[in-house]
Design goal:
This protein has about 260 residues and is of the alpha+beta class. It has a single domain, classed as Protein of unknown function DUF1054 (BirA Bifunctional Protein, domain 2), CATH 3.30.930. The chain has helices at about 5-10, 20-25, 35-50, 55-75, 85-90, 140-155, 155-165, 180, 195-205, 225-235, 235-240; strands at about 100-105, 120-125, 130-135, 170-175, 190, 205-215. The protein has a 6-stranded antiparallel beta sheet.
């Protein structure tokens, strides 16, 4: 048994998440596909309610918060270097563009802005739940992307080798934008044939995800906690390869492994 499975067994009865409601699972099903901001705001008002009595506040946010908190607590039991403040880990439902067509949660380094950190993420969207790792450029600190891309370049052969293993487990190398989300598309997917092709994809998009999609049929059960955590175990090597130079695998062993 892997160490993470032991941790899950130890903490199982203390988890708050019991599965997503049908309202949360279907939350983004009717997000407008017209790329019209007025329609997107109308959609949000129907989901939010005038006094925060809508499905976002009463269903999706508390359920997603429970899942994210349970995941963070479990990982924190073996890695005290991750951020535990839920307000730092849970993405806002609205950004400067408007209402978002997905709900995002990030497990990232303590006291580091999640937008410029390598992160494990949980992302509920119209296509289902997306889980894996993400890194990308952000206006907050453009130089951070350059440092992470340098790490990708320096470790390109090792990262490529690990990516190919993950593809065999159902993971995909993806870049996703707003248009993909509203069309309920998985995103721009590539199965690179070489380390350089992988680098070119990351450079041209200024971001990338290594993720798998968990089907909606699995989202209404507490067992989802196990599936998400095992995804984090499977993607851990790429996560560590992309860390900045001050990251210490010895002091911040994300998940104890016995393989």
């Amino acid at each position: 048994m892997k160490a993470i499975e032991i941790k899950i067994d130890e903490m199982w009865n203390n988890y708050n998440f019991s599965g997503f409601s049908i309202e949360s699972i279907q939350f983004f099903e009717d997000y407008p596909q017209t790329n019209n901001r007025d329609e997107e705001w109308d959609w949000w008002r129907s989901k939010s309610g005038t006094e925060k009595e809508g499905d976002y506040w009463t269903m999706l946010k508390p359920e997603f918060t429970d899942l994210l908190s349970d995941i963070a607590e479990t990982i924190h039991s073996v890695d005290s270097g991750i951020e535990m403040k839920i307000e730092e880990n849970l993405g806002e439902p609205i950004n400067r563009r408007g209402p978002l067509p997905h709900c995002w949660g990030a497990i990232h380094t303590k006291n580091r802005d999640k937008r410029i950190d390598v992160q494990f993420f949980i992302n509920l969207a119209g296509v289902g739940m997306r889980v894996g790792i993400f890194i990308g450029s952000h206006d907050k600190s453009p130089k951070s992307w350059n440092r992470y891309y340098t790490g990708l370049f320096e470790n390109k052969s090792l990262v490529f080798e690990e990516l190919k293993k993950l593809e065999n487990l159902g993971y995909k190398f993806i870049s996703t934008n707003h248009g993909h989300y509203i069309r309920k598309s998985e995103g721009q997917i590539i199965s690179p044939e070489s380390p350089d092709a992988m680098l070119d994809f990351a450079y041209s998009n200024q971001e990338f995800d290594v993720l798998k999609i968990i089907d909606n049929s699995k989202l209404n059960s507490k067992e989802l906690i196990k599936e998400v955590l095992m995804s984090f175990v499977q993607t851990r090597r790429i996560y560590e390869m992309l860390q900045l130079s001050n990251y210490s695998p010895k002091s911040r062993n994300l998940i104890f492994l016995d393989d």
